[in-house]
Each structure stands twice: as structure tokens, then as C-alpha cells.
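Box 4.2: Ligand-aware structure prediction
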Amino acid sequence: MGIIIDGKRIAAEIKEAMRKRVESLKEKGVQPRLVIVLIGDNAASQVYVKNKINACNNAGIHAELVKFSSATTDEILAFLKKVNEDPSVHGIITQLPFPPNIDEDTVLSSINPKKDVDCLNPVNAGKLALGIDAIAPCTPKGIMKMLDYMKVDIKGKNVVIINRSRIVGRPLSFLMLNRHATVTICHSKTADIPKHTKEADIVVVAVGKPGFLKKDMIKSGSVVIDVGINKVGGKICGDADFDVMDKASFITPVPGGVGPMTVAMVLENTVMLAEKFGGTHD
Ligand code: NAP
């Protein structure tokens, strides 16, 4: 039976550490401030954004939600210009997914790299890819922190990530590579996913399909990081079958695993940007 990684507990420790760093910033006259932009009416996004805002405010970060029920790309760009240049704003998140009329690449490229909490500006994403010291996106960074916390060795390990999105799989592959893992990325066009997962020391599954990762797809003693968030019969679950736990050495629960770590990393990245850049634009 695998050990369940308590993401909630690790996240609580990180949030407490952030609360102290916020206090120090305030003593120096800096009030960390995060602006989250939500476009459209995606129900799941509304819940995620609320969690981020509450957690930030509890730690003393001034977090606010700016909601556009509908907007054009130009309207979002105009708003971003304002907050990019506002020295009292230290962090900006534009919550994904955007409605289809919004030009995602243009909007993400327009976030000031010095305020880019989710590391989605290509300048930051490029630095991460090259292994240059940069901000890392919240979900992959949270996964790395969890593994470190549990003292899971990454160097030289076979890591299989089932996801290639810009917020999960791609950045996580670089973080793993930077830590000397041998990384394989699988996706919907991968011919034989079990062939890869059966060889993996660490499997990260982020497909968004309940029961996707089955016990017979992993090797004994592997570490399973379940990123998926699904709703089945009114209950939240991940992408891994329940009995994967019998074979894994470590597994993250859903809820209570990667989700709280993502939120904790929103706090950490906002504090880090406030400490490093203090809201400056250029
Ligand atoms: P996404 O952009 O839709 O990515 C899903 C990925 O899964 C894609 O790479 C897709 O492949 C792959 N995929 C889909 N069906 C597959 C199949 N049958 N076989 C193999 N690969 C398949 O979603 P996302 O934003 O990355 O999120 C993924 C999941 O993680 C969702 O459940 C989301 O709610 C969850 N999530 C959780 C957190 C958290 O904090 N816990 C944060 C972010 C996301 P293609 O690229 O080929 O389409």
C-alpha cells in the first residue's frame, strides 16, 4: 500500500511561511498585491480563482478578482497594460481556459514578465525551457515541491508525464529535466502509453479522465502524481484508479494533493515577485 502524499498539509506549511514573508515585506512598506483576471463564466475556473484569492488574502496578500463576463482581446490587452504599469501590482494571473474569441497567445505574451505568476509569458516559459533561473508555473512547481518534501529522488529517474499542456506537462518536463530526470511526455496521439508508464519511476497523469491510469499500467513501487480534477456523481476525483495505490510507493490524493500545492505556489510566486521586482515595470 502506497503512502498518500498529504498536499494539504505541505501547502499549509508553505502558506504559513508565506504569511511571514508577507509580514517582512509589509515592514519594508511593500503590500504584495495580486490581480486575477477571469474571462467568461467557466464554473470550475470560478472555484479555482476563489480558492486562490481566499488563500492569498489569508496570508496578507491583497488579492483581487477582475471579472469580464465577456470581452474582446483588445479589451483584455488594455486592462493588462494598466496593471502591468501599476507599481502597486506585483502579480497577475489570467485564468485559463479563455473563451474561444480571446487570442490566448497575444494575451499571455502581454503579461509583464516581472508580474507573471503562472509563468505563461513566452519570455518566462523560454527561460524555464533553457534552465535559466526563472519563475516556474504554479502546478508543476507545486509537484516538484511535493516530491522534494517527500524526499523522492528525481536524478536519473524515468519520469513519464501524460499531458503536454502549457500549464502542466511542458513546464513540468523542463523542471524534471533540470533536475536530471529522463523525461517522456505522452499525449492523446501516443501509440502505446502503458509501454512507457510500465517503465516509469514517476508517473504524472493530467488527462482529465477519471480512471485513466490503471494499476496494470504502472510498475511496483512507482510514484504516482495525480493532477486530474474530475467530477463523478457530485464527487471530485483524479485520473488514477483507486487501486493504483496498492502498487505505488507514493501517490497524491484528489482532492488534497496537487490542488492545494498549486494554490500555495500562487502565494509563493506572488511573494517572490514582490520581493524581487517590487512592482516595477521595466
Ligand atoms: P488540457 O490542456 O486539456 O490537457 C490534457 C492533456 O491530456 C493533453 O495533453 C491531451 O493530449 C492529454 N490527453 C487527453 N486525452 C488523452 C488520452 N486519451 N490519452 C493520452 N493523453 C490524453 O488540460 P490541462 O489544463 O493540462 O489539465 C489537465 C487536467 O489536470 C484536468 O483534469 C485539469 O482539471 C487538471 N489540472 C489540475 C490542476 C491542479 O491544480 N490540481 C492544475 C491544472 C490542471 P493532447 O495534447 O494530444 O490533446
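In the box above, the bound molecule is NAP. The first strand starts at residue 3 and ends at 4.
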